[in-house]
Write a sequence for this structure.
């Protein structure tokens, strides 16, 4: 478009809904060949297309090679695009600190199944390889073992420390300890009940 030219509303609508052919796109690419940009201009273009401003933005969650990646640019061990594998974030939330790049994770199921009880973490890649025979792995070489987690019946989270209810056998984490109610019997024994059982008895 020449500088200073104006278009009518109808022309603008046609241009907006115009579908470019392959030949037209090829001609445009030829016209842009040889166009030089300074490093400062390239940097500004790169910043302008990051994160949610990018045309291909999918909410900060992508799937590559079977793994799920989450956009966390503030993470100390994110990749060059600011993404971190979701299973590493799940384990870090469980253990309360960051995993080092040398520390490796293991899936018991599919690569995109990142539930805590389906994950493990080891101190090195060699330990991960030796896990094919669990007898070759020492306890101090395991950072996190999701098989030891139990599901809280109150909130549905996978937790380490739980309260076992005597009357029904349910498990509740520390986050839902108010669901566990101890009741003293006539003989002096204390048996724990949960709110679900008490509500069922009162109905």
């Amino acid at each position: 478009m020449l500088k200073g030219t104006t278009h009518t509303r109808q022309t603008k609508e046609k241009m907006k809904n115009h579908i470019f052919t392959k030949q037209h796109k090829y001609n445009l690419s030829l016209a842009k060949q040889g166009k030089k940009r300074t490093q400062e201009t390239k940097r500004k273009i790169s910043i302008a297309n990051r994160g949610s401003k990018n045309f291909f933005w999918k909410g900060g969650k992508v799937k590559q090679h079977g793994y799920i990646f989450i956009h966390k640019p503030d993470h100390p061990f994110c990749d060059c695009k600011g993404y971190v594998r979701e299973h590493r974030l799940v384990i870090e939330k469980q253990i309360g600190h960051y995993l080092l790049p040398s520390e490796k994770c293991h899936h018991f199921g599919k690569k995109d199944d990142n539930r805590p009880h389906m994950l493990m973490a080891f101190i090195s890649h060699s330990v991960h390889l030796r896990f094919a025979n669990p007898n070759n792995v020492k306890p101090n070489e395991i950072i996190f073992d999701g098989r030891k987690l139990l599901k809280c019946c109150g909130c549905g989270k996978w937790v380490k420390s739980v309260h076992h209810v005597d009357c029904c056998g349910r498990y509740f984490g520390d986050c839902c300890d108010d669901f566990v109610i101890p009741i003293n019997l006539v003989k002096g024994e204390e048996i724990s009940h949960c709110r679900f059982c008490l509500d069922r008895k009162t109905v």
About this structure: The chain has a mean pLDDT of 78. Residues 22-32 form the longest helix (11 residues). Residues 158-202 form one domain.
